[in-house]
Design a protein that fits this description.
Blueprint (H helix, E strand, L loop, with lengths): L2 H30 L4 H4 L14 H9 L2 H32 L5 H10 L9 H10 L7 H4 L6 H13 L2 H9 L4 H12 L1 H16 L3 H6 L8 H11 L4 H33 L4
Helix pairs in contact: 3-14, 4-8, 4-11, 11-14, 13-14
């Protein structure tokens, strides 16, 4: 066997092992969601349930309003993604095509904000939400996430890659900036926009820290925060906790499996300039 084949075999073996290690926790979570209390506590571990039943899911939904949590998560995700996508398109076009004083400086300052972790902004955002009397409301989960400089950076780089001649040709034909943006640039940027929407949807769905600070009532909790509260209620029933965790994680897994090509491709296109 040649050295190249051995090297290729070792690479694939390492990647396969890494994939198994990463998928094992999800496999255990999913199978445990269908096990009984005796099966999940058995040693040595029982890898598969004796029979498939939805009783654990029914019990988990009876102990906590996960249906309400699910609806809240969907509402927050849809609103955040819609508003963020709209503001990202406008900001990316402004920094890419419009000429105004201090454009480069302003964009550089905004990029520098990416180095500040969100945890450092929690107190300021929390105070703002309280001052606006939005604490423990759904809008409190949406308002701080209506724009993103990271997504603006991705989309701006794509807009920069479009030839200026196309823009000036449209302007000569009498097209306004607004019409050119929505009729020409946005359709061309569909792959990058798809990536932005998917990344934003995943981030919104998995958000935990911010809801923990601004939401207290059951009716306004999202799935991640509701799951954390549920751990205290189902601490002695790990099978119920695994069933609830499956409800939270499964939509993200399905979305990623169907959209992974768009995510990788869109980030790659958005990171190239010219």
């Amino acid at each position: 066997m040649s050295r190249q084949k051995i090297s290729k075999f070792l690479i694939y073996a390492f990647l396969t092992l890494g994939g198994i290690v990463m998928l094992l926790p999800f496999f255990v979570m999913f199978t445990s969601a269908f096990k009984t209390t005796q099966e999940i506590n058995r040693f040595p571990p029982q890898w598969f349930p004796s029979h498939v039943s939805l009783d654990n899911f029914k019990s988990a939904f009876a102990m906590a309003p996960f249906a309400k949590y699910f609806v809240n998560s969907v509402v927050v995700m849809v609103c955040s993604v819609s508003i963020t996508t709209f503001t990202t398109i406008l900001a990316a076009f402004a920094f890419s095509r419009l000429r105004f004083p201090g454009r480069s400086l302003i964009f550089s300052l905004l990029l520098s904000l990416m180095m500040i972790p969100f945890e450092m902004l929690i107190i300021t955002n929390y105070s703002t939400i309280v001052d606006l009397k939005l604490w423990d409301t759904i809008p409190a989960l949406i308002l701080p996430f209506t724009s993103s400089i990271f997504y603006t950076y991705i989309l701006k780089n794509f807009f920069d890659s479009v030839s200026d001649s196309l823009y000036w040709s449209a302007r000569i034909d009498g097209s306004s900036n607004w019409r050119y943006l929505w009729k020409v640039m946005v359709p061309m940027a569909r792959p990058s926009l798809t990536t932005i929407i998917l990344l934003n949807a995943l981030a919104s769905w998995n958000s935990f820290m911010w809801p923990m600070y601004v939401i207290s009532s059951d009716k306004n909790r999202t799935l991640p925060w509701g799951l954390q509260v549920f751990t205290t209620e189902a601490g002695s029933h790990p099978e119920l906790l695994m069933a609830a965790s499956t409800v939270v994680v499964l939509p993200c897994i399905v979305l990623f499996l169907f959209a992974r090509k768009y995510i990788v491709g869109g980030v790659a296109r958005g990171g190239l300039k010219g």
